[in-house]
Design brief:
The complex is a heterodimer of chains A (116) and B (110).
Chain A: E1 5-7, E2 10-13, E3 19-24, E4 31-37, E5 44-50, E6 53-56, E7 65-68, E8 75-79, E9 88-95, E10 106-107, E11 111-115
Parallel strand pairs in A: 2-11
Antiparallel strand pairs in A: 1-3, 3-8, 4-5, 4-9, 5-6, 7-8, 9-10, 9-11
Chain B: E1 5-7, E2 10-14, E3 19-24, E4 31-37, E5 43-50, E6 55-58, E7 61-66, E8 71-76, E9 85-92, E10 98-100, E11 104-109
Parallel strand pairs in B: 2-11
Antiparallel strand pairs in B: 1-3, 3-8, 4-5, 4-9, 6-7, 7-8, 9-10, 9-11
The chains are: A mainly beta (116), B mainly beta (110).
């Protein structure tokens, strides 16, 4: 089974510019997550979708970050405008709605964002 | 915010030795999971322990959970150079979104 796909893998932008990240979860996984991982820290949840509805976006900086999951499959995360402190790896993960691995998350390779 | 704190932050051992890392957390949980992150790779799920379990084994991994102390430990036995990675504990309150600790960087010397 194919894993979680993310693109681009690397992105360098200047502060105040905008950027978008794309994620394609494992086929059939209804739940999708975006995490932000700053260097030297553990990942922090930004937003959780179930199908195309938002379950939790309490830690998403909504003044600059937005995310959508059209048709309950692919998702995009956008930052506009970017700040220096947004430099991080953005990880996408997915999990099934049932079954033995219900609580496990499958992570993509991440997008490394550098804001200069 | 980070739910857990991991100890130690960094650990260096020789191949064949055992590695133990600890995790503390703050709130009640449904389950606790351990993930590994290699340089250049994504996070990989290792093992899950539910709040009503005290110990779990998977291959060379042994996880314990003490909900009264809000702590967990991960033991890797007979370590290999390929075990070199960062290890994170992550807690789930039942909503399935994970709160990660700060991680332990393990270096296994060949």
């Amino acid at each position: 089974e194919a894993g979680v796909a993310q693109s681009p893998r690397y992105k360098i932008i200047e502060k105040r510019q905008s950027v978008a990240f794309w994620c394609n979860p494992i086929s059939g996984h209804a739940t999708l997550y975006w995490y932000q991982q700053i260097l030297g820290q553990g990942p922090k949840l930004l937003i959780q979708f179930q199908n195309n509805g938002v379950v939790d976006d309490s830690q998403l900086p909504k003044d600059r970050f937005s995310a959508e999951r059209l048709k309950g499959v692919d998702s995009t995360l956008k930052i506009q405008p970017a700040k220096l402190e947004d430099s991080a790896v953005y990880l996408c993960a997915s999990s099934p709605l049932g079954g033995r691995t219900y609580y496990e998350q499958y992570f993509g390779p991440g997008t490394r964002l550098t804001v200069t | 915010s980070q739910q857990g704190e991991e100890d130690p932050q960094a650990l260096s051992i020789q191949e064949g030795e055992n590695a133990t890392m600890n995790c503390s957390y703050k709130t009640s949980i449904n389950n606790l999971q351990w993930y590994r992150q290699n340089s250049g790779r994504g996070l990989v799920h290792l093992i899950l322990i539910r709040s009503n379990e005290r110990e779990k084994h998977s291959g060379r991994l042994r996880v314990t959970l003490d909900t009264s102390k809000k702590s967990s430990s991960l033991l890797i036995t007979a370590s290999r150079a390929a075990d070199t990675a960062s290890y994170f504990c992550a807690t789930d309150t039942g909503r399935r979104a994970l709160t990660f600790g700060s991680g332990t960087r393990l270096q296994v010397q060949p």
